[in-house]
């Protein structure tokens, strides 16, 4: 637990991760605080950048994004210029949901969501045509066992 966070802050964070649409009254009731005390704590968590935004989770299937692919990229290039270009290209592809620089056998990992294999192939072709890569490997998911889980707030 962070030294600036007590059990009320943790309860607030868990409740908001589960449902960010809670009214101030509902949140206060769930965590056992008055509305004013709860509001002050939420504001303090925002000021400390513990809470960085508020979003809605969407169902990818209902949006026609039924295919999830993890793409592993290896490169020979590690210059600042190459990295800036690569980041710009990858971030310019809306179907790239997550993008990481990683340690190990590969240099980067992308999570791509698309309509189907043909749509993924178009994204793949767009990526490899725009920048030189050493190797690229794709892992197609069959089932999301755990996805978008809440962060552990202890």
From TrEMBL:
Q: State the SUPFAM superfamilies in the record.
A: Dimeric alpha+beta barrel (SSF54909), Winged helix' DNA-binding domain (SSF46785)
Q: Which UniProt keywords apply?
A: DNA-binding, Transcription, Transcription regulation
Q: Name one Pfam family in it.
A: HTH_AsnC-type
Note the superkingdom of the native organism. Answer: Bacteria
Q: Which stretches make up the HTH asnC-type domain?
A: 5-66
* Name of the molecule in the record: Lrp/AsnC family transcriptional regulator
């Amino acid at each position: 637990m962070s030294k600036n966070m007590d059990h009320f802050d943790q309860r607030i964070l868990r409740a908001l991760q589960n449902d960010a649409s809670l009214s101030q009254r509902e949140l206060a009731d769930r965590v056992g605080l008055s509305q004013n005390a709860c509001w002050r704590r939420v504001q303090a968590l925002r000021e400390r950048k513990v809470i960085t935004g508020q979003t809605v989770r969407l169902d990818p299937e209902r949006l026609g994004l039924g295919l999830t692919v993890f793409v592993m990229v290896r490169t020979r290039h590690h210059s600042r210029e190459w990295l800036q270009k690569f980041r710009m290209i990858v971030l310019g592809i809306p179907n790239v949901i997550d993008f990481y620089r990683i340690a190990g056998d590969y240099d980067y990992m992308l999570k791509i969501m698309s309509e189907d294999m043909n749509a993924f192939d178009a994204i793949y072709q767009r990526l490899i045509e725009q920048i030189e890569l050493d190797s690229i490997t794709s892992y197609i998911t069959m089932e999301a066992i755990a996805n978008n889980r809440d962060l552990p707030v202890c």
